[in-house]
Amino acid sequence: MSAPAVAIPETTEAASLAPTAYEGIEPLSDAERKVAANWTLRFVLTASAIFLVAGVLGMLLRNSQADLGRLDDNMWYAIMTVHGLGAFVGWAAFAVMGFAYWILASLGFALRGFGRVMAATSWITMVVGVAGIVVTTLIFDFAASWVFLYPLPFESAGQWSDWVAGLFSASVLLSGVSIITWCLSILHTVVGPALKAKSSNVLTRMGVALGFGYLWPAKFATNPRKLPYPVIPLTVIGIDMIIATLPLAVLLVIMIIQSATPEVGVNALFAKNILWFFGHPVVYLLLFPAAAAYYYLIPRYAGRPLVAGKLIAIAWAIAVVANVIVWAHHVYIDYPDGTPQAAINVAMQPLTFSLTIPSALSLYSLAFTIYKSDFKWTPGSTALFFGLVGWFLAGLSGVINATIAFDQVVHNTLWIVGHFHHMAFFNIGFLIIGAMYAFIPELTGKAWWSARAGRFHVWVTFIAGMGFVIPWLIEGLNGAPRRFAILPEQYNAYAWASIPFILLLSLAQFVFLFNLIMTLRGKGGTVAEAAAREQAVAAERAATGRKRMADASVEAVIVLVAVALAFAAGAAGWAIGRSSNDSPPASETPVAPAEPAAPAEPGAPDVEAGKDVFTSAGCAGCHALSDAGAAGAVGPNLDELAPTAEVVNAAVTNGKGAMPAFAGQLSDEEIANVSAYVAGVAGK
Amino acid sequence: MGHVASVIAWFYLGLVIIGLVISVALWRSTRARRKQVDQHKLERRERGWLVVVVVLLVALLFGTIFFTPYDDDAKGSNKQVVNVTAQQFGFVIEPAVVKAGVPTEFVLTSPDVNHGFGVFDPDEEFVTQVQIIPGDTQKLTHTFEKVGRYRVLCFEFCGVGHHVMQATFEVTE
Asked: Crossing angle, helix A607-616 and helix A668-681, to 10 degrees?
């Protein structure tokens, strides 16, 4: 079967892309191009596989919150841990790290010698690191969340052992090694001969690669052409991630030692600052290579050079410094007595604001490059455009988070989850999607199998993606906490409303996967064939005078249908959520009419009410009790202990050992009820 | 939605609408018949737009930086102190009854891991929060106006029982 099963693509990515928007590029040899292409494909395809797994795991998390397949509590948190690290580092970062090699190669910068060794090291350490994270979480129950806030990895409440925490730390450390070796490969590549710097001094060449030549042309001279803009953000992040990762690596080594020798340890506040000293820049490990890709691809679709200039070099000079001194905006809500944390936090609000400048300028430059250009709207370029919309939205919610007075309301709520999905899934995810559409034909010589499937994928992903992110933003503003396996019930309707969008989203990704597999198997033909087909169709249309339906109308119809579907699904989910809220809980409906539903006489404990107390007052967090479906392992297993009502009453009222007293929070009646309940069902 | 949350919602919504209008305008601009555009002219216009962002950020900075939670709001002698111990997976709040209209100073500690202290009023509306770090003492001052039973949820992930870690306290006349 040689002919594709669907209609001839209206626009192939390869035929729409102008060769390059940057002048004076000396093309690499075929062998050099092949090296870069191989490493880019290896990074990006591995990352895509991780994305599919991480996506399915994310779906399980939200489904569980909506009570569709409820997961065991610790399993929920274990999946949250691996979903976060997998999607953020294993997919988003890993993919843009791979694209960097192809972008540099396309600008004449060859990956060679030491750089090639570092690229190979980066790939293998990331794969092994992610595998270690998967094993320690899904098999050995490590569930301290993807920020593994110290000392939680060693305070597991009986859920996992210290050696598992050590193994997890070692896996994250390997991912850190991957990041550092990638940085080295990038820095080695950018100072290579293609830089055209006059100086042979490595530090001066690094300055040239940072774009200093635009600011100080005499000291950082290039000959003859200026530095292509995409090199600047790659150099910035190559330097910053080495600075940011080393302290975290030390913390991880200490944690590995602590897993074997428990007397070793560090101050929790210090560890929190170290974590975020890495945790902020690692966000830009996604964004800055993505910025390079936008700088490289948007001008090619627009058919004109990037609208930039001196200003963008200033912005990146701010970024390289500010990036590593703004971490404390993640700990605005920490300001313990007698520590300088409050002062550090206040200083970091304006510093964080200054980081808005590189983002704002990049968005302006890219928007002005598109503005009134002959922009080719293909699946790839549409995805890139949506990525820019995501960049704007994520930046906006980011500015809100960076404002201390606002963060006090949104910190650790689901608003933050909405923010970073706009960031990682929209701003970066759409760049990855767009760059795959643009680069796969260049990297493999194979044309996309179906442009129509591509359009469907990009549009449905955008609409369904918004449908699952926006509920988080609203929930967060209504105070819903993040990282709750089971949310307080007033937030149930939001979880229900997101489910149809999540299903739609996964459908679109499977369409993409199918299209990708068909493309890689050569079912779309070669790039040359696809371009020839497109020209033939255009010629036929011109000859017959048949009016071609404008892309705009096609898109408008797709949008309307998709929006209608999404709304219908959302409304249905909402309605189901509401009706399930309205119906009385099963426990209020007497199953067997054994006793009249008369009010219990004073003094006689109400066992059913006691069960409600057990599940709502937090007993299940620490104690196992099969009747209540509780599996806590902090305190004694109540089924084994089988205590009398008097013993339970005393422990709950006054506390016992590590157990806090609940006398202040529960009434005497509630305590009597829960005691009767536990005594009645424990061990039965 | 609380007062500050509403401010955020309107601020965000307003700018999102502006952003969407610009996105659509940008898309439409690629479909019009046009003459060659002068690249340098666009660069100059970009500089103008940068000024807009800088002015907005400076305004936001000066509008908000004086409203940090870091000042001691209860300098006077007229405050009530509540000791809170947060531990996996419960809070001990002593005393669990406070008076409305008088500043309440929570003194919070944790013997095990990081926890959060997120307070919801009797209408389930979010009021305030602070983080609790093991090894340090955290203080949070708030004057409650609404009378009734307040709910506390843990606002920092602390392990398998994080979502069941909650408590209540009473605000009286």
From this structure: 100
